[in-house]
Amino acid sequence: MIEYLINPCSSVRIDVKKEQTITVIDLEGGQVADFFAVSAENSGEFLSAGVTIDVNESLRLGVGSVIYTNLYRPMFEVVYDDVGEHDLIHPCCRTEMYDFFYKNGVGHPNCLDNINEALNIRRDEITAVNLFMYTKISPSGKISVEEPKSKAGDKIVLRALMDVTLGVAACSVSESKCNSGRCTAIMVKVE
Ligand SMILES: [Zn+2]
Q1: Domain encompassing residue 126
Q2: Which of 67, 77, 113, 165 shows its CA 20 to 30 Å from the CA of 157?
């Protein structure tokens, strides 16, 4: 088993083989982990939150849910989950998002740059699976980002269904409820 500590507002790259399990732990509670992956065999195949919504016919993830690639192939299965609230709809935070909402994008750490750096790629937009992020969706379609329900030590466990390279970021937003107003660390264990 290998442990990876993701410091606040940073990211890691992790190579994972098919059938390995990936445990993502919210060490202090209330912290989002942006979870993205690219196929080890084909850089044109990557995690797609949109396809995951499409195939699962759900905006939510839970035990038994499968996370799909842009090519509609299964990439991960959720095998354990303490939290039950994860976000599939928000793109990774980025310089322009910080500028738009908070006028502070310059020099602000952000998940888009962090994941691109971890994976040594340059995607213009990434929509990760935002583990532990609690986006409340009302029947009217109105959404609001609330504090994560995750408590210290809460985790989600995923089984890899193909060889992948992960780019995982501890989200950098301290300006809203997204990470409970402060950025903390995330732990990932692969076994
Ligand atoms: Zn972020």
Answers
A1: 2-190
A2: 113
How far does the centroid of ligand 1 lie from the alpha carbon of residue 110, in Å? 5
The answer to whether the predicted template modeling score (pTM) of the entire model surpasses 0.85 is: yes
| Banded model confidence at residue 72, pLDDT cuts 50, 70, 90 | very high
- How far, in Å, is the centroid of ligand 1 from the Cα of 115? 10
Q: How many domains does the chain have?
A: 1
* pLDDT tens string 2-45: 999 999 999 999 999 999 999 999 999 999 999 999 999 999 99
* Neighbouring C-alpha atoms within 13 Å toward the C-beta of 18: 8
Task: Dig out the tokens for 23 from the structure.
Answer: 């445990």
What separation in Å is there between the alpha carbon of 94 and the centre of ligand 1? 7
Residue pair 27/180 in contact (Cβ under 8 Å)? The answer is no
Cα–Cα distance, 42 to 117 (Å, whole number) = 18
